[in-house]
Write a structure and sequence with these properties.
mainly alpha; two-stranded antiparallel sheet; transmembrane; transmembrane helix; calcium; EF-hand domain-containing protein; EF-hand-dom_pair
Length: about 210
């Protein structure tokens, strides 16, 4: 009996010991994972601050007259400056990429504020479909089609937008901001169509 009791006691002791070891390992794993998440969040925040600092410096370099706004002439003239090109290289941008995004960043008043510039570039950065969206917007803005044909183009744009949203969900952590930019541009295009439609109706009435 004593032998059975001893074996049982040892067995229970070993079982408890391994459970404690397992609990300690799991607890340490959770602590390490939590620390990694915290470090990653901290690094992302620091990267965001570095990006904003670089973009602010880039804006000031482009803003030749120091007015606080960047005109289209200032924007495109700055693309040939070596200092601007070096800043773009540091942010993994090509000059051709930035030249194409003016049409997307500009809200129609012909100038960019520092907020429009920094927020817009951050939204565009790293977005796999950003260039495709710029091409669509440029094509629609510069078209000479009537409002009926333009509406068909916008409907197609909306269909493309739905597909792009699914792609964007699988890319960068800034995908929400990129989708917001797409929706914003889609809304502006719809407003543009409505204005053209009302203008055509007024012109038709005047001719009558």
């Amino acid at each position: 009996r004593l032998g059975v009791f001893y074996i049982t006691f040892v067995g229970i002791g070993v079982f408890i010991f391994w459970n404690l070891i397992t609990a300690i390992i799991v607890e340490n794993a959770f602590a390490i994972d939590k620390k990694d998440v915290a470090n990653e969040a901290k690094e992302m925040e620091e990267q965001k601050k570095r990006d904003l600092k670089r973009l602010a410096d880039l804006f000031l370099e482009i803003d030749k007259d120091g007015s606080g706004d960047v005109t289209e002439d200032e924007f495109f003239q700055a693309m040939s400056k070596k200092s601007v090109q070096q800043m773009l290289d540091a942010m993994d941008f090509r000059v051709s990429d930035l030249e194409d995004v003016w049409v997307t960043l500009d809200d129609g008043d012909g100038v960019l504020t520092i907020k429009e510039f920094t927020n817009g570039i951050r939204r565009m950065k790293g977005a796999a479909k950003a260039k495709d969206m710029v091409d669509v917007v440029k094509r629609l803005r510069h078209t000479t089609l009537g409002h009926v044909e333009l509406l068909a183009q916008v409907d197609q744009f909306g269909t493309e937008l739905e597909g792009l949203e699914e792609d964007v969900k699988r890319i960068s952590t800034d995908c929400g901001e990129v989708v917001g930019l797409f929706h914003e541009m889609f809304h502006r295009l719809q407003m543009h169509i409505e204005r053209n439609k009302r203008r055509d109706m007024i012109e038709a009435r005047v001719k009558e």
